[in-house]
């Protein structure tokens, strides 16, 4: 199916077009620069930016894909989770398009889109497969039974998301928002063994109750205490070493529990998605550990890990292939939509 996907859950306005698993266009306009001075996404600013960017992104995507609206088999759109005011811009745009073209509308789950985007790079996914969704707002371990209909959350963070931890640690180190890419870069110049930061929820006792869960707030606090102490003692802060050591702690736990999930459930395939899945150390360590465990790892190219319209389009294509029922024209945005609901 030929599907157009619209994404507007946070600060990226995305319009993507796919034919099955083939990527035809992926236009992304980010308002990230407008949020930098606030150190995080400002919802009102994001909503306004979506309004301004949506139609140009749509026009560029159609031109790039060389597709006419009349050829589409459906309009897919993020219905949640995300920022309410941001989601409604995409949803209103998609509804208007669907009404104008008389094409079916599919309101979809943003998180399932992060998981589905890998199909564009590596084709259909053998299931059941394990998945790690690591983004700015979520960190979840999943079992994917069917990408269009059945994703089960097995564990997740009990406090901060991994991306949130990256962003907060960057702030502590005086690095700009968003912190993930900057820390990734700094870490490549540092020693990951310089400082031993805590690995959340990995003691024997923690594992009893939280085998597949994550916690990053203790790690974030440990980094900020370490930095404060150095500064108080009048010592310089070895930025690259702190970044590398923080990153090592985060990626160590993320990957160890992912491997444990595969072994526990006998999963032979594993994929990653979400903004933090672009992280070089996470990708590298996961490759090492999954290979050792005999699990085939699938990693979408870094450029497809962060928010975009193509991930919603390809999820829409899977939903259509599975005979998913079009959404009602009066569906609303759901800022807390759980991954168990893929099609609204
Ligand atoms: P959600 O998908 O949970 O609603 P979101 O859409 O805001 O949240 P994404 O766009 O998927 O999140 O990812 C953004 C996050 O990814 C930010 O926290 C950012 O710091 C992080 N990130 C991006 N690139 C990297 C990287 N190379 N290393 C680590 N983190 C990264
Ligand atoms: Mg973003
Ligand atoms: Fe996202």
Q: Tell me the helix content.
A: 40-55%
The biggest beta sheet is recorded as: 5 strands, mixed
| Helix and strand composition category | alpha/beta
Question: Which range does the strand content fall in?
Answer: 15-25%
Taking pLDDT < 50 over at least 5 consecutive residues as the criterion, the unreliable ranges are none
The rough form would be described as globular
What does this structure look like?
This protein has about 350 residues and is of the alpha/beta class. Helices cover about 45% and strands about 20% of the residues. It has helices spanning about 30-35, 45-65, 85-100, 110-115, 120, 160-170, 180-185, 205-210, 215-230, 240-265, 280-290, 310-320; strands spanning about 1-5, 10-20, 20-30, 75-80, 105-110, 130-135, 140-145, 150-155, 270-275, 295-300. The strands form 2 sheets. A 5-stranded mixed sheet has the order 3-2-1-4-5, with helices on both faces. A 5-stranded mixed sheet has the order 8-7-6-9-10, with helices on both faces. Helix 11 links the parallel strand 9 (about 270-275) and strand 10. The longest helix is centred in the C-terminal third of the chain and has 27 residues, at about 240-265. The model has no long low-confidence stretch (mean pLDDT about 95). The chain binds adenosine-5'-triphosphate, magnesium ion and fe (iii) ion.
Set out the fold topology.
Blueprint: E1 2-7, E2 12-19, E3 22-30, H1 32-36, H2 43-65, E4 74-80, H3 84-101, E5 105-109, H4 110-116, H5 118-122, E6 129-134, E7 139-146, E8 150-156, H6 162-172, H7 179-187, H8 204-210, H9 217-232, H10 239-265, E9 269-273, H11 280-292, E10 296-298, H12 310-321
Parallel strand pairs: 1-4, 4-5, 6-9, 9-10
Antiparallel strand pairs: 1-2, 2-3, 6-7, 7-8
């Amino acid at each position: 199916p030929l599907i157009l996907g619209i994404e507007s859950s946070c600060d990226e306005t995305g319009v993507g077009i796919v034919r099955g698993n083939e990527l035809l266009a992926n236009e992304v306009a980010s308002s990230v620069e407008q949020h930098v001075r606030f150190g995080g996404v400002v919802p009102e600013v994001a909503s306004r930016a979506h309004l301004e960017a949506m139609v140009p992104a749509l026009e560029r995507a159609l031109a790039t894909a060389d597709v006419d609206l009349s050829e589409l088999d459906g309009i897919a759109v993020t219905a949640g989770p995300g920022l309410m005011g941001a989601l409604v811009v995409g949803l209103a745009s998609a509804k208007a398009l669907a009404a104008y073209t008389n094409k079916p509308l599919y309101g979809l789950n943003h998180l399932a889109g992060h998981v589905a985007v890998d199909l564009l790079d590596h084709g259909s996914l053998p299931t059941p497969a394990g998945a790690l969704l690591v983004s700015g707002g979520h960190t979840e371990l999943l079992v994917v039974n069917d990408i269009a209909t059945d994703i089960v959350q097995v564990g997740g963070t009990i406090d901060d998301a991994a991306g949130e931890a990256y962003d907060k640690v960057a702030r502590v180190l005086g690095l700009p928002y968003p912190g993930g890419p900057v820390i990734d870069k700094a870490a490549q110049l540092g020693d990951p063994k310089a400082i031993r930061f805590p690995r959340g929820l990995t003691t024997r006792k923690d594992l009893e109750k939280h085998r597949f869960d994550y916690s990053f707030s203790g790690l974030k606090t440990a980094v900020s205490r370490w930095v404060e102490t150095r500064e108080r003692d009048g010592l310089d802060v070895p930025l690259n070493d702190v970044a590398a050591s923080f990153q090592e702690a985060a990626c160590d736990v993320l990957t160890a529990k992912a491997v444990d999930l595969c072994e526990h459930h006998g999963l032979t395939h594993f994929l990653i998605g979400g903004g933090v899945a672009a992280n070089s150390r996470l990708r590298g360590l996961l490759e090492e550990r999954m290979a050792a465990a005999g699990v085939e790892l699938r990693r979408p190219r870094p450029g497809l890990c962060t928010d975009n319209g193509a991930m919603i389009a390809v999820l829409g294509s899977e939903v259509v292939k599975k005979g998913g029922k079009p959404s009602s024209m009066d569906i609303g945005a759901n800022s807390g939509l759980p991954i168990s609901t893929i099609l609204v």
